[in-house]
Amino acid sequence: MQTILVGDIHLKSRIMLPMVEKAVNEHGAKQIILMGDYLDDYDCEHNPQLYLDELNYLIGWKKKMESADIKVIPLLGNHDAPYLTGELKNYSLHENFYMLPNNQDISEVISQKLIELGIQISFQLDDFLVSHAGYIRGSKPKRWHHRKLTLDEKDIRWVSEIASQEGSRGGLGPTGSVIWADFSDLIKLPSIDVTNQIVAHTPQSKIIFEYEREVHYQLVDIDTFSLKPIEEYPYVEYIGNGELLLYNNGELSAIGTDWRNKDILENLYQQRQQD
Question: In this protein, which residues make up the domain named Calcineurin-like phosphoesterase (predicted)?
Fold first, then answer.
């Protein structure tokens, strides 16, 4: 099945997903995998309306795709997990949803929307195991990783465990979990329990196809929509080129988008202005 895979979103659904939809139509894809990190970005932690608008757009877009018989598989990222567990980070949203009835709690609102989205930890795409950050040596997928998450106490406890294992990115544990492992860790400590992997999480200038010859192991990093902050307007600049990944019968190829269009950062700036 032709599948398009999309790197980290970080509060850019309204800009990125129309590009994804265009690629889906051009290539006749019937499946889309979203790699996670729908939430959080630089200097957005005091803008609850932005979070709400982005999540509502994302959920509505997924329903639109599914109504056209296109399957959408949303994966969980490290920036999404704290809203499920309630263990918010310093980069998480800091404001309750004061525009909603009863000044609703951050975690309560976002966790419900993530569950409505239908997030899961990983997905097996033929010979490729797809997850937000990847499985390194000593880790392998568990049965619950391949199903939709719930707000059940057991699921939340399991998510909390992987959310705390930041590895080389900091936190507990010597190695990063499936939502925290750095791409360099996947290369240094390739898993012996899984086959080829497709990940995001570690920003790249373009899609990276990396082979580990000893185990005939392919690693692919597709985090190409990330930005970094700068001092001057529009206060962010590009890291990646906005490529999408196309999977077709075992073959992988990069798809270009209009991500580097001159109006993109201006539009993003306008979307992120608070009333």
Answer: 2-161
